């Protein structure tokens, strides 16, 4: 057979729409069809011989040109047989489709469907008393469960209940605390939402922050609680934007929703002026930043003015957050300013008079799992702004503004926009579903099983499959370690930040020792973390202590699931409390740590810690830079966006090639510098440093930006060299 003729006919076979349609009917989507064809073509072209029947078909097609004896479509049975050899799931596609059919989630919870539940939606903005009323019903019930998004919230309800002489247990991913000394289960329980039981009957259940049912990573937990809790009354608290979705979901279960609307208890005013300078700070002010570097920069500038400030951000341990909140709230403490991320949006009671947005853009993760930077949403802005003027605090009215004047107009637009309705609820494959997949595909890795499950899953318009990138990252990381499927699944659902190498490495070591059936002891953990640890001397050491705290959290989380293999939870919890105290010392002295970090860093370094947050370009990014500087400005912005931390300053040459001198000197409307400030890609401190460096290097003529005479002299010297 002519190799050229065979190849030409194989490619013709691949391009035929009828063949692609037949492939789809047999479970080969576009990606699998392409992969199967490449393998099939390689098999035919590189094999020294093929089966007689396939050879006859190829001969008929090539010699007869498809006129009488053969047609390229005749290759399909051979192609499908080959595809099933490399994709075994094609033989059991019908079974796999049934397993991954997610169109009727209410049917997963027969105990909840067996009772007629009463659904009450408490809808209102932050500081409207909606959760308070739901909790009052929780406390008056004979039994109840509170489900919240944060350990801090669960702990708060746990304390409130026991203070009100209503015995209540606490259940989070890392611990269970019993109200009764004899470890007898109390009739009430406060838990993080992932930990709620769908088998235990209660009189009242409270599901807090229901709008998080749309969360790309955790939304499945709210869906599970809403559909599966066995309670006579389900009290749902959250934004009015979720009312329609909850009503539709309950319609599919045959349950009606009673909506109770609440209004904010104290007035909230958006000011007509921006702060513009930290010299204008007042007691009770909270500056909200969306990156650690901005937290460090702003807090240092505040303390340089002789003011004390408390600091709260997401990666701090809960105990440290509470201590910082207590310090800020204490009327007798000289600390009257708070610098925080959007971590203050829920879980902390704070006496804030005025919220000041340092920036109105923040890094986010889109539905594809890509990193982006974009304006905060109306929901996020309202959640954060609503923390000002809390009911019952010393401030009877809340105020909101921005740090920069140009941001204020956009903030007002964001706050005046209506919150878009929540359109879909998250779902996640269960371990039972993955185990059934593994039965049909015993040789597939866990990461591949998840991929196949998602590709075959069917959902209706009310649901979506949650992002599973973190799960797959951990599955790939521990794939080489011999574990049974259920244990492997548990390790992959561990709550950790995959951007923290020390925590990821520890999980890998945990899994390896677990696979050898060797218990992870307290002594082993102390050796691994080099405990005891000293107070941090710089920001890098503080960040490492936060990572060690996360490692202790990971140990406690695994000890709750594998008690025999992680036996020293009590000892680990004790040293975690000591570590919390050490971190508190570091946070209280954060400006000293920043100074130490900057003095140790290379000259010209503007940031004290690099935040590895690769950002994908958005339409908004392109729009911002296209008006005046064209392609060169786009290049400059891509450098500013794509180069994290210190590299933004180190790439000054590329930045200068795109921006004119006045862009660094001018802070006026429309300049590149001003736009980068608004986008959160530069801070004022970085801008001043860039301007200073540019002026110094301009005087030295280092980058060819000197006078015409310098250019002429340079040209002459070049000419001499050529001669």
TrEMBL record:
Subcellular location(s): the record lists: Mitochondrion
Q: What is the protein's name according to its record?
A: ATP-dependent RNA helicase SUPV3L1, mitochondrial
Q: Which UniProt keywords apply?
A: ATP-binding, Helicase, Hydrolase, Mitochondrion, Nucleotide-binding, Transit peptide
Q: Which Gene3D superfamilies match?
A: 1.10.1740.140, 1.20.272.40, 1.20.58.1080, P-loop containing nucleotide triphosphate hydrolases (3.40.50.300)
One of its GO biological process terms is: mitochondrial RNA 3'-end processing
Q: Which residues form a coiled coil?
A: none
Q: Which PROSITE patterns match?
A: HELICASE_CTER
| Cofactor(s) this protein requires | Mn(2+); Mg(2+)
